[in-house]
Amino acid sequence: MHDDLAAGGLFTDSRDNQHTLGAEGKLVWPASEILCQYICHLSHTHPNLFRGKKILEVGSGQGLVGMTASLFSSSPPILTDYDEDAIELLEANLSRNFKDDDAGRPITTKLTWGDEKSMDDLSKKHGDHFDFIVGSDIVYYRTAVVPLLQTVRRFLTPQITRKVEEGSVFILCNQRARLCVNHDLFFDTVKELGLHIEETNTSQISLDSFLPPDKIPLEKTHLFLIFRQ
Fold this sequence. Notes:
The protein is about 35% helix and about 20% strand. By secondary structure, it is α/β, with parallel strands linked by helices. The protein has one domain (about 1-229): Rossmann fold (3-Layer(aba) Sandwich), CATH 3.40.50. InterPro entries: Methyltransf_16, SAM-dependent_MTases_sf.
C-alpha cells in the first residue's frame, strides 16, 4: 500500500494487488488523470458549469475523477462501483481528502451496470437523472460494454443541442488500446440505444495544471462526449 499525490493535492491510496478480478479499481489509470484535466479545463472555460449540478461517476475505482469534480460543484458527486473492496477504498480516499461534515464530500454507493434493481436503488437514493456522468478506462471487459451503456442511457435525459455546457452528457475517457478490443460492440450499442457520440480534441486540454506532461499520453486516449438523443 502506498500513497499518491494526485489532482491538485488530492490523495489516493492505491493497493498493489494487480492480479485479481477487480484490481483495475485499485489503481489510478492514465485516462482518469486526463479526465481530471478535462474537468479542470471545462471549469476554467465555463466557471459555473458544475455548480449545483448532479454528477455521477461510474466505475469510480480510486475516485480521483469524482473527487476532482467535487472541487467545482456545490453538490456532492455520487461515486459508484460494483466491487465492495473498491467501495471500501473509495471511502478511505474520501476520508483522506474530506472531513465528514464537508458539504461537498462525495457520496459512495454500489452500482451494478445494467442491473434493474441496482439502478432502481440508485434512483431512489439520488434521483432518476444526472447532469453529468463521468467515467475513465471503463470500456474494457466485453461483457460490461452493453450494461454500461444501458446504465448511462437510464440516467441521462435527452439533449438536443449536444453541447457539453448544456449538461446531460456522459464524459468518457478511455485508453485507445482498451477500447479497440470492443470497438464494434461499443459503437453498435451506442447507436442501438439512441445515443449520440462525438470525440473531443484533447489538444485543448492544458497540461500545466497539476500533472507532468510525460504522464498524460493524450495520443493514446479517446475523450468522448455521449448524449441521449
